[in-house]
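Protein modeling request. Please complete all fields; requests missing the sequence field cannot be processed.
Requester role: graduate student
Desired output: 3D structure, token encoding
Chains: 1
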Amino acid sequence: MSIVKSSKNKDQLLLDGFRYTRAKESQTVGRCCRNICADCVRFDGTIYINVQDHIHAPNAKETIAMEFKLKIVASATTSHYPPRRIIHEALLNIPLPRPNSFDDIYIPDELRVANSGSRFLLSDNENNSDRMIILSSDDDLDRLSNSDYSHTDGTFKARIAPQLFHQLYTIHGVLCGRSLPLVYCIISGKSEEMYDEMFDVVLKHISQRPKSITIDYEKAVLNVIKQKLPMTTHSVRQGPSVYESIKDLQMEQHANLIMAEQLQNGLVKKVKRIKYERLDEQLQQCVSSFDLMTRDLYFKRARALFNF
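Delivered output (308 residues):
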């Protein structure tokens, strides 16, 4: 609902796709702007109440167009911005349609290119059962090609994954020591077949393969990585995922906190030097055998050494 000005500078009410003008000599009643329609609404001080049904369908596009025009006129009269910027900012506030099915999805030309004007839509399989849209610019694909290290991440949260789709999957590269998302994949599922199709598209557009790739532990992704990038090392096989590592570090931090409190309170007993020497020897053995044992066994021995 909004109030706009007509071409004659009179207030008009935009409500539910209909346009009303104020009835003569009334501050609370609005009549439909179409002469053939006798519908009117009444304002009771809190809400607008429909008095009579319309004889025509609502026109949401007309409502959006009027609000768009009003915003342009207001900005043009109150700011010194060039017309192109005024129109661009007004367009940003126009709500995009929300498709109800994959059949309804058509990506317009203005969304197929980046803000710089270069191509952004890398692939759209237009499959109404397993829809997949992949976005990346040529510059970002070049950056990914020149990145020795890469990592991927899938986000399943409803507020991030678009409506109708299952997840937003991103592929990151490393530029000047910083990880940057370079490829965005909007996917309607998480099957191995979909990941296979996704990596097929991306790998066709990059000239070099990464030396190492980090992935969250997901069996379908792991299988595809092993098949598509057999010469690339991946962290799932060599070590835990980032989240598992953080969880382990949380435990380690908690143990350090307890130890610090004990030291501050004088609760740690003094031991002989020979015990420190033995502990140092055990620590060196544990560190030197890091690559020869599983993560769980390593942390088990480390906890035993530090008594936590």
